[in-house]
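Dear support,

I submitted the protein below through the web form. The confirmation email said the job was done, but the results page showed an empty box. After a refresh the structure appeared. I'm attaching both so you can tell me whether what I see now is the final result or a partial one.
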Amino acid sequence: MSNAIEVKNLRKEFKVYSSRKGLKGAFRDLFTRNEKIIPAVNDINFMVKQGEMVGYIGENGAGKSTTIKMLTGILTPTSGHIVVNGMNPHKDREKFVQTIGVVFGQRSQLWWDIAVQESFRLLKKVYKVSDEQYDNHMNHVIKTLDIEPLLDKPVRKLSLGQRMRCELAAALIHNPPLLFLDEPTIGLDVLVKLKIREFLKEINEKYQTTILLTTHDLSDIEALCERVIMLDEGKVIYDGALHHLKETWGEGKEVHFQFLETVDLQSVKAATAGLPVKWEHDEKEQVFIAYIEDQDELISQLIAQIVAAYKIKDLNIHETSTEEIIRNIYEKGEVRLG
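What the results page shows now:
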């Protein structure tokens, strides 16, 4: 199987100008600027095979969006080598855009004031898609994403969830072999997210569409991707299977407690002072979460000490979530590669 994406020693630097202090400094800034070069993407390497669904994750400012912009030809790399769908995204621009679909959660490719289907018609012309190809492919897309009732509406009248489903359909008008999704489910409700995930799984199975997904919603990654590439400060700190990440780092258990009485974080910490446990309070769900090693005796001790101290409404034991694992990795700043 050939590679959809090949990235070698990819680097992108930005010049940042800093201002000097005071009136004298401002005067000097008129003639010479203090410039600093900051690498947003710092010599990264990875490959994505055709048909793979890969999660590209990292905290804000880690370099995710900069990478996507280079892979889609929006930005030129400072140095390094990129081949996407067998082409250089920047040099083979016209031919290249015919082979990719892009959805940026924060930006629209639809025309704001015209009906959704008019936008689709314009994109069909741009991508030179025949009527037959359009009908064969898009009837299925429109039905699956449930956007038929929206086709006559102008984009500005759509809710965010409706617009994102239409954006996804628009990115697929030319049935591209590769899809870049940058925060596609940001701000969407659970049902819309599920619909989008199911749809992505379906096109991946049906057309072997390669998908590179950046998101802050780790449940998207868990639902769709077997492999994750993790970035920190412009460097790849992990590239491998999601399950391996969980096996290596998800060594503990989460014990979720709900209390019948009012309890604060300090008092639960005090009640379990002798145990190797880390506490968190999820105020929204009104749940206290204890992170503890996966040892039956320790877990029994923890539960016994809490039950002795408080009246309990509910108790659940969970595997450590992907979110917690990734937070631990960023806090410790290390990772065992796999």
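Response: this is the final, complete result; the empty box was a page-load delay. The chain has a mean pLDDT of 87.
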